[in-house]
Structure of Aldo/keto reductase:
Amino acid sequence: MKYRQLGSTGLSVSEVSFGTWAIGGSWGNVKDANSLEALAAAMDAGVNFFDTADVYGDGHSEELLAKATKGREDSIHIATKFCRAADIYDPSVYSYESVRSFCEASLKRLNRERIDLYQIHCPPQEILQDGEVFAVLDKLREEGKIREYGVSVETVEEGLICLEYPGVKALQVIFNIFRQKPAEVLFPKAHQQGVGILVRLPLASGLLTGKFSENSTFDADDHRSFNRNGESFNVGETFAGLPFEKGVELSRELAWIGEGRGNMTRASLRWILDNPHITCVIPGFKNVAQVQDNLGVQEVPAFTEDELARLRSFYEAKVQGEIRGPY
C-alpha cells in the first residue's frame, strides 16, 4: 500500500481508502457480517483511513467501524461528518452546542476520544459564506474532540469558499472521469494551501465499473433508485448527476480504459490517483470481493499523456453538457 500526506495535517493515509455509505445504508441490502469481513480485509491490506457520517444508516456505519477497528484506534484513522441529521438550512444547527452534540454522539458510536477528521456534510453555500461554523470547529479542536476538520462539498465554488478559512485542512469532492471540473482550479489552489483532497463517488455510483445496462434495476432503498433525479438530495451524488441511461451509454464508450488494466473499475481509480493533487480515493464497498477489486488499482499502469488527453476531450465533448445540478 502507498501512503500520501493529508495536506498539512501530519496524517499519512492510504491512497486507497474506503467510504462507508454503502455499508451504512441507502445502497440496497447489506449484511453486517459481510461488512465487517470487508473492513478487516481492507485493514489487513494496509488501508488505514475510512470515511463515514452520522447519517449513514443513522450512525450504523460508525458503529461498524468501532467494532472493526477495536484495538487499532491509534493506527486506523477515521473521518466522519455532521449536519445532515438535522435541517441543514437552519443556522442553529451549526452552533457550538449543536455541533458539539453531533460530535459527542459520533464519538460514542465510534468508541473513540477524538475524531481524526471532522467534516461538515455538504452544507448550503450560505453557511460556508457566513463562516461561524468554522469558529465552532476551531473550538472543538482546541478541546481535543477533533484533530482536524474539513468540508464535504457539492460544487467547486463551495470548495473555493472553504479555502478562505485557514482551519479547513481537507475537502471531500465528487471527482471521476465523468466529473473533471474540480481539477481545473480547485485542486491546484487546495494543494498550494496544504489542503488535502478526498475523492468520493470515484466510480459514479457504479457507472464506471461498466457493469450496468439500461435495464439494470436497484432496490427501493438504494439511492440509485430513490434519488435518480435528485428527489432526496443533490442529484450529483447519484450517477455523477448524469441521467442513468445516458451514463450507461457513455460508460460503454469508455470500455477501452480497462484494456491492460484489469477492468474499468481499476482503470477509473487509476485515473484519479494519477492526479498529483489527490490525497486518496474513497470508493464504497459491500463485501471482500469489492474491496479486493478496488485495491487492485495499485497494480495498474498509469495513463499516458495521449490517453489523458483523449479522456479530457471525451469529457468536454460528450459528458460535461449532460451533468445535472450545480457542480
Notes: The beta strands are 3-5, 12-14, 18-19, 49-51, 77-82, 115-121, 146-152, 168-174, 196-200, 280-281.
